[in-house]
Write a structure and sequence with these properties.
The structure holds two protein chains of two kinds. Chain A contains five helices and six strands. Chain A has a five-stranded parallel beta sheet, sandwiched between helices. The longest helix of chain A has 15 residues. Chain A starts with a strand and ends with a helix. In chain B, a hairpin with a 4-residue loop joins strand 1 and strand 2. In chain B, the strands form four sheets. Chain B has a five-stranded antiparallel beta sheet, with helices on both faces. In chain B, strands 10-12-13-15-14 form a five-stranded mixed beta sheet. A three-stranded antiparallel beta sheet of chain B has the order 7-6-8. By secondary structure, chain B is an alpha+beta fold. Classes of the chains: A alpha/beta, B alpha+beta. At the A-B interface, strand 1 and helix 1 of A face helix 6, strand 6, strand 7 and helix 7 of B.
Chain lengths: 153, 569
């Protein structure tokens, strides 16, 4: 007999332990919620709301990859400036909270809704390794992340 | 490119011309007079010489006649001594007589007063001429280099020609007198030439002065014209041409004046055109810049809610598992198979052939989480709808295609509608909303649009007011108007930014780190909607001290016939 009584499988087959650590710099709560909801099963994802939180987290933790929004409400640096700073390409005054903070070479993916304002080359020059436009296609984002993380190994 | 300037100025040329003209005229006139004077003098002298010679000749002839008559008897008696005495006496009495000769028909000199002269006096030619003279006559002769007049008279003896008496009449006195006369005439000529030279010099000086004056008359207005032209070249169009003088110059100056006016007007027009163009270009560039910024903002505003709308369903669907299940129609048992291609019909529990194949869907995540994300989806979809509506409203207002659905509106009803939308937002942000309206207020308006304006103002106030803040919404009657105002305790707006707040596409903070998103259209639309109600909207605000947006709408302006009715209530 091939048939057996129906039994619902045990839920939650999310990975544990060896998940890669992602820092997502994003000011918008809804965008963050959706990203977290979509990515938390496969990645250990943490949020920073602004430049200060970003550098505070980077000072304490090591991340494998950074997702970077550009427009950051209430932050004294936008995503491009943060990226320049982390990649050593910043020529402004470095805020005290950002001094001696390193991202340990983590690749940076720009995630922005201002697709028309920034050219791909400009973002590359700032130090972005990839650019994903909003609304985020998580399949594409996952592919880009996987590619960068594998390259990183 | 200036032309090479001739070294001789017009002034110099003019003076030279006048002076030359005068000099030529003076020279011609002087020459004429000198020549005339000379010829007059010569004529007069010739006439005078002739007259004097004639006189001397007459005297000589008379003397010769007397001597001839006195000689007749002496010859008859051959008294030669007496003849000599007659001649000598004659010579003594008149010093003009230089010699006397009596000669016979054989031309032999019987008596001779000057033997020294005898050879010459007895010149054959003169002798012949004297002997040939039938009557007393005067003959001009040259004797020993001396110019003389010889008076000749025949001597008759006994009614018969015997010989000839010849008296040499000196012309020395005549010649001396003529010479003195000529000297005098020459002196006169010299004097008049001198006078003429002086007059000529004076005339030339006078001519120079006149020429210089004339030249000044010509050159001065020309120089003024030149100065005026130079002023125009340097862009000074104000000074009129300071030219006085002849009609020609006045006409020329008037012509230049007219030309200057034309140039001035054309210049002004050109400058104005350039300025207008510059402003137009600036406006166009600014508009283009704002449009790009606007498009970027719109894109951002559309993409942000879409992020949730696109991704929440995908992520939620991933939480659902689908299984193939066989259900028994008799006992209700549910079964699964290792082999999905199998197609059993017999129930393993009750043995009846009432099994049917179907699908069973199971939800993996927490229902509470699902509900939360569905609410997010709903909220973001609504937000997207608002953005799209804003855009549509804006394009309608821009195209002047917006139409108001006017009706009699109760303010209380509008505020109820407003509260339904904004109370939740305010509560979420921790901001207190305070409504203050006189009871029973009514007006003629489009209720949807009026509510939209208020939602926009209150929504903005909530966005820019930190938690714990307060927003006052007041409505009061003010003459024929209702005054609506929304005051917050938010960040405020610097006075220099007040004007741009109501402009389309504008946001006071356009930077990438600004705290609040938005299309930048809401206030522009709100203001236009108020103005479509014949109202007026303005802003009072100071940085850090909150903002108050106020608008007045006439109670019944859109439907004047109903104004009284409304005011009566």
């Amino acid at each position: 007999m091939a048939l057996s009584p129906f039994k619902a499988p045990a839920g939650g087959q999310s990975k544990t332990g060896d998940k890669r650590r992602i820092l997502y710099v994003e000011d918008d709560d809804v965008i963050w919620e959706v990203a977290e909801f979509a990515l938390h099963k496969d990645y250990d994802i943490t949020r920073a709301r602004n430049a200060r939180e970003t550098f505070d987290l980077l000072r304490r933790n090591i991340y494998d990859l950074i997702l970077m929004d550009i427009q950051l409400a209430g932050s004294d640096l936008d995503g491009i400036a943060i990226t320049r700073l982390l990649k050593g390409r910043y020529d402004g005054t470095v805020p005290a909270y950002a001094a001696d903070v390193s991202s340990h070479g983590a690749p940076i993916i720009f995630v922005t809704a201002y697709t028309s304002l920034y050219k791909k080359e400009d973002l590359e020059r700032a130090g972005g390794d990839e650019r994903i436009s909003k609304p985020v296609d998580f399949t594409r984002l996952s592919l880009a992340m996987t590619r960068l993380l594998v390259r990183d190994l | 490119m200036p032309r090479t300037i001739s070294p001789t100025s017009l002034r110099f040329k003019l003076v030279l011309m006048v002076v030359s003209l005068v000099a030529v005229v003076v020279a011609l006139i002087s020459g004429y007079f000198v020549v005339k004077h000379q010829s007059d003098l010569r004529e007069a002298m010739t006439a005078r010489t002739q007259a004097m010679k004639t006189e001397v000749g007459k005297k000589g002839i008379a003397l010769a006649g007397n001597v001839a008559m006195a000689s007749e008897r002496a010859i008859a008696v051959l008294d030669y001594l007496f003849l000599t005495e007659v001649l000598t006496t004659t010579m003594k009495n008149d010093d003009g007589v230089v010699y006397g000769i009596v000669m016979d028909n054989e031309r032999r000199a019987l008596v001779h007063t000057d033997t020294a002269l005898a050879g010459s006096i007895l010149d054959g030619d003169i002798d012949k001429r004297a002997a040939a003279a039938g009557d007393a006559v005067a003959i001009e002769v040259t004797m020993n280099g001396q110019h003389l007049l010889e008076a000749v008279a025949p001597i008759h003896v006994g009614g018969k020609r015997w010989g000839t008496i010849r008296l040499g009449m000196s012309l020395k006195r005549v010649e001396a007198e003529i010479a003195s006369y000529e000297r005098e005439g020459q002196q006169q000529i010299t004097n008049s030439v001198l006078t003429m030279v002086v007059v000529a010099v004076l005339l030339i000086i006078a001519a120079s002065i006149v020429g210089a004056t004339v030249a000044t008359q010509v050159v001065k207005p020309l120089n003024h014209l030149l100065a005026g032209v130079n002023r125009i070249r340097e862009g000074d169009f104000d000074g009129a041409f300071d030219v006085h003088g002849s009609a020609e110059f006045m006409n020329l100056a008037n012509g230049f004046d007219a030309m200057r006016e034309t140039i001035r007007e054309r210049d002004a027009r050109l400058r104005q055109n350039v300025e207008e163009l510059r402003i137009a270009v600036e406006k166009a560039e600014e508009a283009s810049r704002l449009k790009s910024q606007f498009l970027a903002n719109i894109s951002h505003e559309l993409r942000t809610p879409l992020n949730a709308i696109v991704n929440v369903p995908v992520t939620l669907l991933a939480e659902y598992s689908v299984f193939t299940v066989w259900t028994c129609g008799s006992c209700g048992g549910e079964f699964q198979s290792d082999d999905p291609n199998e197609n059993p019909t017999e129930c393993p529990a009750c043995g009846k052939a009432t099994l049917t194949r179907g699908e069973k869907v199971l939800l993996a995540g927490e229902p509470a989480q699902h509900r939360h994300f569905l609410n997010r989806l709903k909220q973001q979809a609504r937000h997207l709808l608002n953005v799209v509506n804003d855009l549509l409203d804006f394009s309608k207002v821009e195209a002047k295609r917006m139409q108001l659905a006017l009706a009699e509106v109760e303010v209380a009803e509008v505020l109820r509608e407003l509260a339904e939308t904004v109370d939740v937002l305010a509560a979420g942000k921790g901001v207190t909303l305070v409504y203050d309206a006189e009871p029973g207020l009514k007006l003629v308006a489009d209720p949807l649009r009026l509510t939209q304006v208020l939602i926009n103002l209150v929504g903005n106030a909530i966005k820019f007011t930190p938690a714990g803040g307060r927003i006052d919404i007041r409505v009061h009657r003010r003459g024929g108007m209702l005054r609506f105002s929304v005051s917050d305790t938010g960040i405020g707006i610097a006075p220099d930014k007040h004007a741009i707040v109501f402009e389309s596409f504008r946001q006071v903070d356009g930077s990438h780190t600004r705290a609040v998103g938005g299309t930048g259209l809401g206030l522009a639309i709100a203001k236009q909607l108020v103005e479509m109600h014949k109202g007026h909207m303005w802003l009072e605000s100071e940085l850090g001290k909150g903002s108050t947006f106020t608008f007045d709408i006439p109670v019944g302006v859109a439907l004047p016939s109903r104004l009284k009715e409304i005011e009566a209530t």
